[in-house]
Amino acid sequence: MNFIAEIKIMPLKELLDPQGKAVMGGLSNLGIKNIDDVRIGKHIQLNIEAANKEEAKKIAEEASQKLLANPVMEEYMILIS
Amino acid sequence: MNFIAEIKIMPLKELLDPQGKAVMGGLSNLGIKNIDDVRIGKHIQLNIEAANKEEAKKIAEEASQKLLANPVMEEYMILIS
User: Fold this and answer.
1) Cα gap A45→A28, rounded to integer Å
2) Residue A66 sits in which domain range?
3) Which residues of B touch chain A, with CB atoms under 8 Å apart?
C-alpha cells in the first residue's frame, strides 16, 4: 500500500531562528505589522510503499533521524495518511 | 488575541523538485528503499495578534501572497489555531 508521510521539521524553540527574524522584518517593511514571531522550517512529503501504517511510520521515522532532520537544532513531527 | 498560523508551502505538483530528488537519492544510498517520491517545501509559523480567527487568516493570507510564497512555483495552505 501507498502511504503519504508529512514531516514537519522546525528549529528548536530554544534556538534563535535568523531566517524567521529576517522574514519578520520583511513583513513589517511591507506594512504587515500584527505579527510578533516568525519561525521557518521544512515540510517534507514522502510517498512510502509499506504493508501498513505502522511500517510506513517506522520508515519515515528512520528517514527523519538518519537524513532529514538535525536533532541538535531541529525537532520533527510525522503525520501518516 | 494571539493566533498561530501554520503555513505549508510546497512546490507545485506540475514542477520538478530537484531538492526532493536529491534527498530521495540520499535516502536510497542510506538503504531506505521503500520511498518512491520526495517533495520538499517550507513550513512557516506566524504568531499573529488579531481580533478574531478570520482577521488572523486574512493577515496570514496577505503575508503569504506578498512575501512568503511564490505563486509561479509554489502553492500554500494556511491553518489557523
Assistant:
1) 31
2) 2-80
3) 8-10, 20, 23, 26-27, 30, 32, 34-50, 59, 62-63, 66-68
C-alpha cell at A75: 525537532
CB contact under 8 A, A44 and B23: yes
Q: Give the span between the Cα atoms of B50 and B39, in whole angstroms.
A: 33
What CATH number is given to the structural domain containing B47?
Answer: 3.30.1280.10
ipTM of the complex: 0.90
Conformational region of residue A31, where left means phi above 0, alpha means psi within -120 to 50, and beta covers everything else: left
Domain count, chain B: 1
For A39-52, give one letter per residue: b (16+ CB within 10 A) or e.
bbbbbbbbbbebee
* Interval B12-47: pLDDT, tens: 999 999 999 999 999 999 999 899 999 999 999 999
Q: Give B34's contacts in chain A (Cβ within 8 Å).
A: 48-50, 59
